[in-house]
Specification:
Layout (H helix, E strand, L loop, with lengths): L5 H13 L2 H7 L6 H10 L1 H13 L4 H13 L3 H8 L5 H5 L6 E5 L7 E4 L2 H34 L5
Helix pairs in contact: 1-2, 1-4, 2-3, 5-8
Length: 158
């Protein structure tokens, strides 16, 4: 297998992390045409192999899920509004916008731009579910530890 450059290795790690090739290329430093560059990178056998290896090693943690839901639930829509109102953005400027909470962008036939966001209420509900689950799981062992401590103090074994 051909050795990857530092930037290619970074691209692979970012791609596995965010699952968005264009964003990974841009964040890895490929500022000019990151979409085309990402396609070229993913066509390289060494990059494909590294990505597959990293995918097998990578486990999405509940903290990463929580962070993503938090970004959707509380993200600002300012960058999406900038995109909507400004017509003369360069590709590089668009790459720098934070559009994480945008689900879909359409350009209707009549002109203009249509932007749909991920559902903040659903993201908040999921955050609540995750919070309840994690609190519920940690409360039981704590309660059991209290019971055992109380039993040992009273002289009984439980």
């Amino acid at each position: 297998m051909k050795k990857l450059t530092g930037r290619e290795e970074l691209f692979c790690r970012l791609y596995v992390s965010c699952r968005n090739s264009r964003e990974a290329a841009f964040r890895a430093g490929y500022k000019v045409c990151p979409e085309i560059t990402s396609r070229k990178l993913l066509a390289k056998p060494a990059v494909k192999e590294t990505v597959e290896k990293l995918k097998k090693e990578t486990v999405v943690t509940s903290e990463e899920v929580r962070a993503g839901l938090h970004r959707i639930a509380f993200a600002s829509s300012a960058d999406a509004v900038k995109l909507l109102l400004c017509e003369d953005y360069s590709t590089l400027e668009i790459e720098e916008l934070d559009l994480f909470n945008v689900a879909e962008i359409k350009k209707p036939k009549g002109g203009g731009l249509e932007i749909k966001f991920f559902d903040r209420i659903k993201a908040l509900e999921k955050l609540g579910e995750i919070s309840e689950t994690s609190q519920g799981n940690s409360a039981i062992p704590f309660y059991e530890a209290l019971e055992k401590s109380a039993a040992s103090l009273s002289g009984g074994a439980k």
